[in-house]
Design a protein that fits this description.
The structure holds 2 protein chains of 2 kinds.
Chain A: H1 7-17, E1 26-31, E2 34-39, E3 44-48, E4 54-59, E5 64-74, E6 80-89, E7 94-104, E8 111-121, E9 126-136, E10 143-145, E11 148-153, E12 158-167, E13 171-180, E14 185-194, E15 199-208, E16 213-223, E17 228-237, E18 241-251, E19 256-265, E20 270-280, H2 283-291, H3 296-307
Parallel strand pairs in A: 1-5, 4-6, 5-7, 6-8, 7-9, 8-10, 8-11, 9-12, 10-13, 11-13, 12-14, 13-15, 14-16, 15-17, 16-18, 17-19, 18-20
Antiparallel strand pairs in A: 1-2, 3-4
Chain B: E1 2-13, E2 16-28, E3 32-36, H1 43-51, E4 58-63, E5 66-67, H2 73-78, E6 81-84, H3 96-104, H4 110-119, H5 124-127, H6 138-152, E7 156-160, H7 168-184, E8 188-192, H8 196-199, E9 204-209, E10 212-218, H9 219-228, H10 230-238
Parallel strand pairs in B: 3-8, 3-9, 6-7, 7-8
Antiparallel strand pairs in B: 1-2, 1-4, 4-5, 9-10
Helix pairs in contact in B: 3-6, 4-6
Classes of the chains: A mainly beta, B alpha/beta.
Bound molecules: adenosine-5'-triphosphate (ATP) and magnesium ion (MG).
Chain lengths: 309, 241
Protein backbone atom coordinates (compact mmCIF):
# COMPACT_ATOMS: atom_id res chain seq x y z
CA UNK A 1 0.00 0.00 0.00
CA UNK A 2 3.05 2.22 0.40
CA UNK A 3 3.41 4.85 -2.24
CA UNK A 4 6.60 6.05 -3.74
CA UNK A 5 8.55 8.48 -1.62
CA UNK A 6 10.31 11.32 -3.42
CA UNK A 7 13.82 12.63 -2.72
CA UNK A 8 12.71 15.48 -0.48
CA UNK A 9 10.50 13.23 1.58
CA UNK A 10 13.31 10.75 1.89
CA UNK A 11 15.65 13.42 3.15
CA UNK A 12 13.10 14.68 5.68
CA UNK A 13 12.43 11.14 6.90
CA UNK A 14 16.12 10.77 7.60
CA UNK A 15 16.14 13.98 9.58
CA UNK A 16 13.14 13.29 11.75
CA UNK A 17 13.07 9.54 12.09
CA UNK A 18 16.57 8.31 11.15
CA UNK A 19 14.84 6.36 8.44
CA UNK A 20 16.70 5.49 5.28
CA UNK A 21 13.85 3.65 3.65
CA UNK A 22 10.31 2.69 4.38
CA UNK A 23 10.30 1.66 8.05
CA UNK A 24 9.86 -1.87 9.28
CA UNK A 25 6.75 -2.79 11.20
CA UNK A 26 3.73 -0.55 11.47
CA UNK A 27 3.90 2.92 10.02
CA UNK A 28 1.85 5.81 8.79
CA UNK A 29 3.43 8.54 6.71
CA UNK A 30 1.55 11.79 6.42
CA UNK A 31 2.70 14.17 3.77
CA UNK A 32 1.22 17.61 3.13
CA UNK A 33 -1.93 16.75 5.00
CA UNK A 34 -2.63 13.46 3.26
CA UNK A 35 -1.78 9.83 3.77
CA UNK A 36 1.21 8.76 1.73
CA UNK A 37 1.89 5.32 3.13
CA UNK A 38 0.66 2.95 5.81
CA UNK A 39 1.43 -0.50 7.08
CA UNK A 40 -0.23 -2.41 9.88
CA UNK A 41 0.80 -5.64 11.58
CA UNK A 42 -1.04 -8.48 13.29
CA UNK A 43 -0.69 -6.62 16.60
CA UNK A 44 -0.76 -3.00 15.57
CA UNK A 45 -3.67 -1.48 13.75
CA UNK A 46 -3.83 2.03 12.33
CA UNK A 47 -7.23 3.47 11.48
CA UNK A 48 -8.07 6.86 9.99
CA UNK A 49 -10.38 8.97 12.06
CA UNK A 50 -13.83 9.66 10.62
CA UNK A 51 -14.71 12.85 12.45
CA UNK A 52 -11.45 14.78 12.22
CA UNK A 53 -8.02 14.53 10.63
CA UNK A 54 -5.80 11.93 12.21
CA UNK A 55 -5.44 8.31 13.14
CA UNK A 56 -6.02 5.84 15.92
CA UNK A 57 -3.12 3.54 16.62
CA UNK A 58 -4.27 0.46 18.43
CA UNK A 59 -1.68 -1.81 19.95
CA UNK A 60 -2.88 -5.17 21.20
CA UNK A 61 -2.21 -6.24 24.79
CA UNK A 62 1.02 -8.14 25.15
CA UNK A 63 2.58 -6.85 21.92
CA UNK A 64 6.34 -7.00 22.37
CA UNK A 65 9.36 -5.59 20.59
CA UNK A 66 7.37 -3.91 17.84
CA UNK A 67 7.64 -0.38 16.62
CA UNK A 68 5.35 2.20 15.05
CA UNK A 69 6.61 5.06 12.93
CA UNK A 70 4.30 7.98 12.25
CA UNK A 71 6.36 10.70 10.57
CA UNK A 72 4.76 13.85 9.20
CA UNK A 73 6.25 15.88 6.38
CA UNK A 74 5.09 19.29 5.30
CA UNK A 75 6.75 20.71 2.22
CA UNK A 76 3.97 22.81 0.79
CA UNK A 77 4.51 26.43 1.73
CA UNK A 78 1.46 28.01 3.33
CA UNK A 79 -0.08 24.75 4.50
CA UNK A 80 -1.57 24.69 7.97
CA UNK A 81 -1.85 21.08 8.98
CA UNK A 82 -3.70 19.90 12.07
CA UNK A 83 -3.81 16.28 13.10
CA UNK A 84 -5.09 14.19 16.01
CA UNK A 85 -3.29 10.94 16.71
CA UNK A 86 -4.56 8.70 19.48
CA UNK A 87 -2.54 5.79 20.76
CA UNK A 88 -4.16 2.92 22.62
CA UNK A 89 -1.46 0.76 24.11
CA UNK A 90 -2.71 -2.53 25.50
CA UNK A 91 -1.75 -4.07 28.82
CA UNK A 92 1.74 -5.56 29.09
CA UNK A 93 2.76 -4.29 25.66
CA UNK A 94 6.35 -3.17 25.15
CA UNK A 95 6.72 -0.96 22.07
CA UNK A 96 8.66 1.89 20.52
CA UNK A 97 6.83 4.74 18.86
CA UNK A 98 8.69 7.14 16.63
CA UNK A 99 6.92 10.33 15.65
CA UNK A 100 8.36 13.48 14.25
CA UNK A 101 7.59 16.31 11.99
CA UNK A 102 9.70 17.94 9.36
CA UNK A 103 8.76 21.16 7.65
CA UNK A 104 10.46 22.11 4.44
CA UNK A 105 9.37 25.58 3.57
CA UNK A 106 10.50 26.85 0.22
CA UNK A 107 7.99 29.67 -0.07
CA UNK A 108 7.17 32.86 1.72
CA UNK A 109 4.01 31.79 3.50
CA UNK A 110 3.82 30.57 7.05
CA UNK A 111 3.78 26.78 7.20
CA UNK A 112 2.43 25.10 10.28
CA UNK A 113 1.85 21.66 11.71
CA UNK A 114 -0.02 21.11 14.93
CA UNK A 115 0.01 17.52 16.12
CA UNK A 116 -2.12 16.47 19.05
CA UNK A 117 -0.99 13.13 20.38
CA UNK A 118 -2.90 11.33 23.09
CA UNK A 119 -1.55 8.23 24.76
CA UNK A 120 -3.65 5.75 26.68
CA UNK A 121 -1.13 3.42 28.23
CA UNK A 122 -2.52 0.20 29.68
CA UNK A 123 -1.53 -1.54 32.86
CA UNK A 124 2.08 -2.62 33.03
CA UNK A 125 2.73 -1.51 29.44
CA UNK A 126 6.04 0.00 28.45
CA UNK A 127 6.42 2.67 25.78
CA UNK A 128 9.40 4.43 24.38
CA UNK A 129 8.27 7.48 22.49
CA UNK A 130 10.74 9.37 20.33
CA UNK A 131 9.73 12.63 18.72
CA UNK A 132 11.85 14.92 16.57
CA UNK A 133 10.99 18.28 15.12
CA UNK A 134 12.91 19.81 12.32
CA UNK A 135 12.56 22.63 9.87
CA UNK A 136 14.42 23.75 6.78
CA UNK A 137 14.03 25.54 3.47
CA UNK A 138 15.12 28.87 2.04
CA UNK A 139 11.69 30.42 1.93
CA UNK A 140 10.97 33.50 4.02
CA UNK A 141 7.85 31.84 5.41
CA UNK A 142 7.81 30.95 9.07
CA UNK A 143 7.95 27.31 10.07
CA UNK A 144 5.72 26.66 13.04
CA UNK A 145 5.27 23.42 14.98
CA UNK A 146 2.96 23.16 17.95
CA UNK A 147 2.95 19.65 19.33
CA UNK A 148 0.57 18.72 22.12
CA UNK A 149 1.05 15.50 24.01
CA UNK A 150 -1.51 14.13 26.43
CA UNK A 151 -0.57 11.07 28.44
CA UNK A 152 -2.77 8.81 30.57
CA UNK A 153 -0.88 6.15 32.42
CA UNK A 154 -2.60 3.19 34.03
CA UNK A 155 -1.09 1.40 37.05
CA UNK A 156 2.50 0.22 36.73
CA UNK A 157 2.88 1.48 33.19
CA UNK A 158 6.13 3.06 32.03
CA UNK A 159 6.79 5.70 29.42
CA UNK A 160 9.98 7.29 28.27
CA UNK A 161 9.56 10.29 26.01
CA UNK A 162 12.45 11.79 24.11
CA UNK A 163 11.58 15.00 22.38
CA UNK A 164 14.07 16.90 20.30
CA UNK A 165 14.01 20.10 18.30
CA UNK A 166 17.44 21.02 17.09
CA UNK A 167 17.01 23.10 13.99
CA UNK A 168 14.93 25.28 11.79
CA UNK A 169 11.68 25.70 13.68
CA UNK A 170 10.80 29.38 13.96
CA UNK A 171 8.13 29.12 16.55
CA UNK A 172 6.94 26.31 18.72
CA UNK A 173 4.65 25.90 21.67
CA UNK A 174 5.00 22.46 23.12
CA UNK A 175 2.35 21.38 25.59
CA UNK A 176 2.65 18.12 27.45
CA UNK A 177 0.29 16.95 30.16
CA UNK A 178 0.35 13.63 31.97
CA UNK A 179 -1.70 11.85 34.59
CA UNK A 180 -0.14 8.92 36.39
CA UNK A 181 -1.91 6.21 38.34
CA UNK A 182 -0.43 3.90 40.98
CA UNK A 183 3.12 2.80 40.31
CA UNK A 184 3.34 4.48 36.91
CA UNK A 185 6.65 5.98 35.79
CA UNK A 186 7.15 8.79 33.30
CA UNK A 187 10.52 9.95 32.06
CA UNK A 188 10.74 12.93 29.75
CA UNK A 189 13.93 14.11 28.11
CA UNK A 190 13.66 17.26 26.09
CA UNK A 191 16.40 18.75 23.96
CA UNK A 192 16.01 22.10 22.28
CA UNK A 193 18.26 24.38 20.33
CA UNK A 194 17.05 27.70 19.01
CA UNK A 195 18.89 30.16 16.84
CA UNK A 196 18.19 33.36 14.92
CA UNK A 197 14.95 34.92 16.06
CA UNK A 198 13.26 31.65 16.99
CA UNK A 199 10.87 31.19 19.86
CA UNK A 200 10.30 27.97 21.78
CA UNK A 201 7.93 27.50 24.64
CA UNK A 202 7.58 24.31 26.61
CA UNK A 203 4.80 23.60 29.07
CA UNK A 204 4.86 20.45 31.11
CA UNK A 205 2.13 19.58 33.56
CA UNK A 206 2.44 16.25 35.32
CA UNK A 207 -0.10 15.02 37.86
CA UNK A 208 1.21 12.30 40.10
CA UNK A 209 -2.14 10.94 41.23
CA UNK A 210 -1.23 7.37 42.09
CA UNK A 211 0.65 5.83 45.00
CA UNK A 212 4.33 5.47 44.14
CA UNK A 213 4.00 7.19 40.81
CA UNK A 214 7.23 8.73 39.56
CA UNK A 215 8.08 11.45 37.07
CA UNK A 216 11.41 12.75 35.91
CA UNK A 217 11.26 15.68 33.51
CA UNK A 218 14.62 16.85 32.21
CA UNK A 219 15.15 19.60 29.68
CA UNK A 220 18.42 20.66 28.14
CA UNK A 221 18.49 23.58 25.81
CA UNK A 222 20.75 25.98 23.98
CA UNK A 223 19.60 29.46 22.98
CA UNK A 224 21.70 31.18 20.31
CA UNK A 225 21.33 34.40 18.36
CA UNK A 226 18.45 36.47 19.65
CA UNK A 227 16.23 33.45 20.17
CA UNK A 228 13.93 33.12 23.16
CA UNK A 229 12.87 30.11 25.18
CA UNK A 230 10.35 29.67 27.95
CA UNK A 231 10.30 26.55 30.06
CA UNK A 232 7.30 25.98 32.30
CA UNK A 233 7.24 22.80 34.26
CA UNK A 234 4.68 21.94 36.86
CA UNK A 235 4.59 18.74 38.85
CA UNK A 236 1.70 18.06 41.20
CA UNK A 237 2.16 15.42 43.84
CA UNK A 238 -1.29 14.25 44.87
CA UNK A 239 -0.22 11.06 46.59
CA UNK A 240 2.85 9.33 47.93
CA UNK A 241 5.02 9.93 44.90
CA UNK A 242 8.34 11.15 43.59
CA UNK A 243 8.79 13.96 41.07
CA UNK A 244 11.88 15.62 39.71
CA UNK A 245 12.16 18.35 37.11
CA UNK A 246 15.34 19.85 35.80
CA UNK A 247 16.02 22.62 33.33
CA UNK A 248 19.53 23.19 32.16
CA UNK A 249 20.14 25.87 29.56
CA UNK A 250 23.17 27.26 27.79
CA UNK A 251 22.96 30.87 26.67
CA UNK A 252 24.94 32.11 23.70
CA UNK A 253 25.06 35.44 21.88
CA UNK A 254 21.95 37.31 22.97
CA UNK A 255 19.82 34.28 23.75
CA UNK A 256 17.10 34.61 26.35
CA UNK A 257 15.77 31.80 28.54
CA UNK A 258 13.05 31.90 31.16
CA UNK A 259 12.58 28.88 33.40
CA UNK A 260 9.49 28.74 35.55
CA UNK A 261 9.48 25.70 37.75
CA UNK A 262 6.57 24.89 39.91
CA UNK A 263 5.99 22.13 42.39
CA UNK A 264 2.65 21.51 43.96
CA UNK A 265 2.62 18.99 46.80
CA UNK A 266 -0.80 17.94 48.01
CA UNK A 267 0.25 15.01 50.09
CA UNK A 268 2.57 14.69 53.06
CA UNK A 269 4.43 11.85 51.33
CA UNK A 270 4.95 13.62 48.05
CA UNK A 271 8.61 14.24 47.36
CA UNK A 272 9.22 16.82 44.67
CA UNK A 273 12.46 18.39 43.49
CA UNK A 274 13.23 21.08 40.99
CA UNK A 275 16.60 22.10 39.60
CA UNK A 276 17.31 24.85 37.12
CA UNK A 277 20.55 26.26 35.81
CA UNK A 278 20.94 28.84 33.07
CA UNK A 279 24.23 30.32 31.98
CA UNK A 280 26.80 30.70 29.30
CA UNK A 281 29.36 28.00 28.55
CA UNK A 282 31.81 27.89 31.44
CA UNK A 283 35.08 29.58 30.44
CA UNK A 284 37.12 26.78 31.94
CA UNK A 285 35.39 24.25 29.68
CA UNK A 286 36.46 26.23 26.63
CA UNK A 287 39.97 26.60 28.03
CA UNK A 288 40.29 22.88 28.68
CA UNK A 289 39.32 21.94 25.15
CA UNK A 290 41.61 24.62 23.73
CA UNK A 291 44.52 23.06 25.62
CA UNK A 292 43.68 19.91 23.66
CA UNK A 293 44.25 21.85 20.44
CA UNK A 294 40.70 22.92 19.55
CA UNK A 295 39.95 26.48 18.51
CA UNK A 296 37.50 28.40 20.63
CA UNK A 297 34.78 27.84 18.06
CA UNK A 298 35.48 24.12 17.79
CA UNK A 299 35.43 23.89 21.57
CA UNK A 300 32.07 25.63 21.67
CA UNK A 301 30.62 23.24 19.09
CA UNK A 302 31.84 20.20 20.97
CA UNK A 303 30.42 21.44 24.25
CA UNK A 304 27.04 22.24 22.72
CA UNK A 305 26.74 18.99 20.81
CA UNK A 306 27.80 16.98 23.84
CA UNK A 307 25.28 18.84 25.97
CA UNK A 308 22.46 18.07 23.55
CA UNK A 309 23.55 14.51 22.79
CA UNK B 1 63.09 22.77 24.90
CA UNK B 2 61.11 25.35 26.82
CA UNK B 3 62.56 28.55 28.09
CA UNK B 4 61.04 31.26 30.27
CA UNK B 5 62.82 34.60 30.17
CA UNK B 6 62.15 37.14 32.92
CA UNK B 7 58.51 36.27 33.32
CA UNK B 8 56.58 38.68 35.50
CA UNK B 9 52.89 38.43 36.31
CA UNK B 10 51.11 41.15 38.16
CA UNK B 11 47.46 41.53 39.05
CA UNK B 12 45.67 44.52 40.46
CA UNK B 13 43.29 43.94 43.30
CA UNK B 14 41.57 46.76 45.18
CA UNK B 15 43.86 49.18 43.30
CA UNK B 16 46.88 47.39 44.71
CA UNK B 17 49.44 45.71 42.50
CA UNK B 18 50.27 42.18 43.53
CA UNK B 19 53.29 40.41 42.09
CA UNK B 20 52.46 36.81 41.55
CA UNK B 21 55.52 35.89 39.51
CA UNK B 22 58.68 37.97 39.73
CA UNK B 23 61.28 37.66 37.07
CA UNK B 24 61.13 33.95 36.58
CA UNK B 25 63.75 32.59 34.19
CA UNK B 26 63.95 28.90 33.58
CA UNK B 27 65.03 26.29 31.06
CA UNK B 28 63.31 22.96 30.76
CA UNK B 29 65.16 20.37 28.72
CA UNK B 30 64.38 16.91 27.49
CA UNK B 31 64.00 15.47 30.91
CA UNK B 32 61.85 14.98 33.89
CA UNK B 33 61.39 18.20 35.84
CA UNK B 34 59.52 18.50 39.10
CA UNK B 35 58.41 21.91 40.27
CA UNK B 36 57.72 22.21 43.95
CA UNK B 37 57.38 24.87 46.64
CA UNK B 38 54.92 26.29 49.14
CA UNK B 39 51.22 26.71 48.50
CA UNK B 40 50.51 29.96 46.75
CA UNK B 41 54.08 30.23 45.52
CA UNK B 42 53.07 30.60 41.87
CA UNK B 43 53.51 27.11 40.40
CA UNK B 44 50.08 26.77 38.81
CA UNK B 45 50.28 30.34 37.55
CA UNK B 46 53.55 29.49 35.83
CA UNK B 47 51.98 26.43 34.20
CA UNK B 48 49.11 28.60 32.97
CA UNK B 49 51.57 31.09 31.54
CA UNK B 50 53.40 28.32 29.68
CA UNK B 51 50.15 26.97 28.22
CA UNK B 52 48.79 30.41 27.30
CA UNK B 53 45.86 30.42 29.72
CA UNK B 54 47.38 33.40 31.50
CA UNK B 55 49.27 36.18 29.71
CA UNK B 56 52.40 37.34 31.50
CA UNK B 57 52.75 41.04 32.26
CA UNK B 58 56.25 40.92 30.79
CA UNK B 59 58.84 38.41 29.73
CA UNK B 60 59.19 35.84 26.97
CA UNK B 61 58.37 32.19 26.46
CA UNK B 62 60.36 30.20 23.92
CA UNK B 63 59.55 26.72 22.68
CA UNK B 64 62.43 25.14 20.77
CA UNK B 65 63.78 28.63 20.23
CA UNK B 66 60.54 30.02 18.84
CA UNK B 67 58.91 32.91 20.68
CA UNK B 68 55.43 31.68 21.62
CA UNK B 69 54.58 34.48 24.07
CA UNK B 70 51.81 35.84 21.87
CA UNK B 71 50.39 32.53 20.68
CA UNK B 72 46.93 31.41 21.75
CA UNK B 73 46.22 28.39 23.95
CA UNK B 74 45.17 26.49 20.83
CA UNK B 75 48.32 27.27 18.87
CA UNK B 76 50.54 26.28 21.76
CA UNK B 77 48.64 23.03 22.21
CA UNK B 78 49.14 22.31 18.52
CA UNK B 79 52.84 23.01 18.86
CA UNK B 80 53.04 20.23 21.41
CA UNK B 81 52.19 21.52 24.86
CA UNK B 82 49.81 19.48 27.03
CA UNK B 83 48.49 20.37 30.43
CA UNK B 84 46.70 18.34 33.10
CA UNK B 85 44.89 20.83 35.34
CA UNK B 86 45.20 20.92 39.10
CA UNK B 87 41.40 21.18 39.15
CA UNK B 88 39.93 19.12 36.31
CA UNK B 89 36.99 20.60 34.45
CA UNK B 90 33.61 18.88 34.34
CA UNK B 91 31.44 18.69 31.25
CA UNK B 92 27.78 17.91 31.00
CA UNK B 93 27.27 15.54 28.13
CA UNK B 94 30.83 14.93 26.93
CA UNK B 95 31.98 11.42 27.80
CA UNK B 96 35.39 10.11 28.78
CA UNK B 97 35.75 8.68 25.28
CA UNK B 98 34.77 12.01 23.68
CA UNK B 99 37.50 13.77 25.63
CA UNK B 100 40.11 11.12 24.86
CA UNK B 101 39.25 11.39 21.16
CA UNK B 102 39.50 15.17 21.24
CA UNK B 103 42.80 14.92 23.10
CA UNK B 104 44.19 12.45 20.61
CA UNK B 105 43.07 14.63 17.69
CA UNK B 106 41.37 11.79 15.87
CA UNK B 107 39.10 8.93 16.79
CA UNK B 108 40.92 6.38 18.89
CA UNK B 109 40.33 2.69 18.41
CA UNK B 110 38.47 1.28 21.37
CA UNK B 111 41.56 -0.74 22.22
CA UNK B 112 43.77 2.31 22.30
CA UNK B 113 41.30 4.27 24.40
CA UNK B 114 41.09 1.38 26.86
CA UNK B 115 44.86 1.25 27.01
CA UNK B 116 45.03 4.87 28.21
CA UNK B 117 42.34 4.19 30.77
CA UNK B 118 44.09 1.18 32.21
CA UNK B 119 47.35 3.11 32.42
CA UNK B 120 45.67 5.44 34.88
CA UNK B 121 44.12 2.49 36.69
CA UNK B 122 40.54 2.83 35.54
CA UNK B 123 38.58 -0.03 34.07
CA UNK B 124 37.68 1.19 30.61
CA UNK B 125 34.43 -0.75 30.45
CA UNK B 126 33.10 1.09 33.50
CA UNK B 127 34.21 4.55 32.50
CA UNK B 128 34.63 5.05 28.80
CA UNK B 129 31.02 6.03 28.15
CA UNK B 130 30.48 7.96 31.35
CA UNK B 131 29.86 11.66 31.20
CA UNK B 132 32.68 13.71 32.66
CA UNK B 133 30.23 15.41 35.00
CA UNK B 134 29.70 15.86 38.70
CA UNK B 135 28.97 12.16 39.13
CA UNK B 136 32.67 11.29 38.86
CA UNK B 137 34.74 11.41 42.02
CA UNK B 138 37.65 13.80 42.43
CA UNK B 139 40.23 11.04 42.07
CA UNK B 140 38.52 9.62 38.97
CA UNK B 141 38.53 13.05 37.36
CA UNK B 142 42.22 13.49 38.11
CA UNK B 143 43.02 10.18 36.45
CA UNK B 144 40.96 11.01 33.37
CA UNK B 145 42.79 14.33 33.21
CA UNK B 146 46.09 12.43 33.14
CA UNK B 147 44.78 9.96 30.54
CA UNK B 148 43.99 12.90 28.23
CA UNK B 149 47.58 14.08 28.36
CA UNK B 150 48.76 10.53 27.65
CA UNK B 151 46.38 10.38 24.67
CA UNK B 152 47.87 13.58 23.29
CA UNK B 153 51.45 12.32 23.54
CA UNK B 154 53.07 15.71 22.87
CA UNK B 155 56.66 16.79 23.35
CA UNK B 156 55.94 18.81 26.47
CA UNK B 157 53.53 17.50 29.10
CA UNK B 158 52.76 19.46 32.24
CA UNK B 159 50.91 17.86 35.15
CA UNK B 160 49.69 20.06 37.99
CA UNK B 161 49.66 18.00 41.19
CA UNK B 162 48.62 14.79 39.45
CA UNK B 163 48.82 12.82 42.67
CA UNK B 164 46.33 15.00 44.55
CA UNK B 165 43.34 12.97 45.62
CA UNK B 166 44.69 9.73 44.22
CA UNK B 167 44.81 6.82 46.63
CA UNK B 168 48.04 5.22 47.71
CA UNK B 169 47.70 2.06 45.68
CA UNK B 170 47.16 4.02 42.47
CA UNK B 171 49.93 6.38 43.42
CA UNK B 172 52.47 3.58 42.92
CA UNK B 173 51.06 2.95 39.47
CA UNK B 174 51.09 6.63 38.71
CA UNK B 175 54.80 6.77 39.39
CA UNK B 176 55.20 3.87 36.97
CA UNK B 177 53.15 5.73 34.36
CA UNK B 178 55.47 8.72 34.57
CA UNK B 179 58.59 6.58 34.40
CA UNK B 180 57.16 4.74 31.42
CA UNK B 181 56.31 8.06 29.80
CA UNK B 182 59.83 9.29 30.30
CA UNK B 183 61.14 6.21 28.53
CA UNK B 184 58.68 6.36 25.67
CA UNK B 185 58.29 10.04 24.87
CA UNK B 186 61.15 11.91 23.43
CA UNK B 187 60.21 15.09 25.17
CA UNK B 188 59.89 16.83 28.46
CA UNK B 189 57.68 16.01 31.38
CA UNK B 190 56.99 18.66 33.98
CA UNK B 191 55.23 17.70 37.17
CA UNK B 192 54.14 20.16 39.81
CA UNK B 193 54.16 18.22 43.04
CA UNK B 194 54.63 18.28 46.77
CA UNK B 195 55.32 14.55 46.97
CA UNK B 196 58.76 13.36 47.96
CA UNK B 197 58.31 10.19 45.94
CA UNK B 198 57.75 12.22 42.80
CA UNK B 199 60.74 14.42 43.62
CA UNK B 200 62.70 11.17 43.92
CA UNK B 201 62.24 10.35 40.25
CA UNK B 202 63.02 13.85 38.98
CA UNK B 203 66.07 14.62 36.88
CA UNK B 204 65.69 18.27 37.63
CA UNK B 205 63.98 20.09 40.50
CA UNK B 206 62.77 23.68 40.52
CA UNK B 207 61.54 25.33 43.71
CA UNK B 208 59.15 28.23 43.31
CA UNK B 209 58.47 30.28 46.41
CA UNK B 210 56.92 33.68 46.71
CA UNK B 211 56.75 34.10 42.94
CA UNK B 212 60.41 33.42 42.35
CA UNK B 213 62.71 30.53 41.54
CA UNK B 214 64.38 29.96 44.87
CA UNK B 215 66.30 26.83 43.92
CA UNK B 216 66.94 24.83 40.83
CA UNK B 217 69.28 22.11 39.75
CA UNK B 218 69.63 18.37 39.50
CA UNK B 219 67.81 16.18 41.99
CA UNK B 220 71.12 15.40 43.68
CA UNK B 221 71.76 19.10 44.18
CA UNK B 222 68.31 20.27 45.27
CA UNK B 223 66.62 17.39 47.07
CA UNK B 224 69.00 17.21 50.09
CA UNK B 225 68.48 20.92 50.71
CA UNK B 226 64.72 20.55 50.53
CA UNK B 227 64.68 17.70 52.97
CA UNK B 228 66.83 19.48 55.53
CA UNK B 229 65.42 22.99 55.23
CA UNK B 230 62.62 23.06 57.75
CA UNK B 231 60.50 25.48 55.78
CA UNK B 232 60.57 23.50 52.54
CA UNK B 233 60.15 20.32 54.49
CA UNK B 234 57.00 21.50 56.13
CA UNK B 235 55.50 22.45 52.80
CA UNK B 236 56.45 19.04 51.48
CA UNK B 237 54.79 17.42 54.45
CA UNK B 238 51.77 19.63 54.01
CA UNK B 239 50.34 17.61 51.25
CA UNK B 240 51.61 14.12 51.95
CA UNK B 241 48.57 11.90 51.98
N1 LIG C 1 44.03 36.28 39.07
C1 LIG C 1 44.53 36.35 40.31
N2 LIG C 1 44.18 37.35 41.13
C2 LIG C 1 44.68 37.43 42.38
N3 LIG C 1 45.54 36.55 42.90
C3 LIG C 1 45.92 35.53 42.13
C4 LIG C 1 45.44 35.36 40.80
N4 LIG C 1 45.98 34.24 40.28
C5 LIG C 1 46.76 33.73 41.26
N5 LIG C 1 46.74 34.51 42.36
C6 LIG C 1 47.51 34.30 43.61
O1 LIG C 1 48.81 33.99 43.21
C7 LIG C 1 49.42 33.10 44.11
C8 LIG C 1 49.98 31.92 43.35
O2 LIG C 1 48.93 31.05 42.99
P1 LIG C 1 49.19 29.63 42.33
O3 LIG C 1 47.88 29.00 42.10
O4 LIG C 1 50.07 29.80 41.15
O5 LIG C 1 49.99 28.91 43.51
P2 LIG C 1 50.56 27.43 43.57
O6 LIG C 1 52.02 27.55 43.74
O7 LIG C 1 50.09 26.63 42.42
O8 LIG C 1 49.91 26.91 44.91
P3 LIG C 1 49.37 25.43 45.35
O9 LIG C 1 50.57 24.65 45.80
O10 LIG C 1 48.48 25.73 46.51
O11 LIG C 1 48.66 24.85 44.20
C9 LIG C 1 48.35 32.77 45.13
O12 LIG C 1 48.57 33.56 46.27
C10 LIG C 1 47.07 33.15 44.44
O13 LIG C 1 46.10 33.51 45.37
MG1 LIG D 1 48.74 25.08 42.20
Amino acid sequence: MAQKIDQLQKHMLEKIADLHSVPEGAYNIRSNGTLSGRNTTANIDIVSKEDKPGIDIIIKPGTRNESVHIPVIVSQSGLKDLVYNDFYIGEDADVTIVAGCGIHCGGDDTTEHDGIHTFHIGKNAKVKYVEKHYGEGDGAGERILNPTTVIYMEPDSYMEMETTQIKGVDSTIRDTTAKLEDGATLIIKEKIMTHGKQYAETNFQVDLDGVDSTANVVSRSVAKGTSRQVFNSKICGNNKCYGHTECDAILMDEGHVVAVPSLDANNLDASLIHEAAIGKIAGEQLTKLMTLGLTEQEAEEQIVSGFLK
Amino acid sequence: MLELQNICYQVTEDSQDIDILRNVSLKIDDEFTVITGPNGGGKSTMAKIITGIVKPTSGKILLDGEDITDLSITDRARKGISFAFQQPVRFKGLTVLDLLNLAHGEKLSLDAACQYMSEVGLCARDYINREVNASLSGGELKRIEIAMVLARGTKLSIFDEPEAGIDLWSFNNLIRVFEEMRRKIEGSIVIISHQERILNIADHIVVIADGQVSEQGTREEVLPKLLTSSEACSTLMDKVV
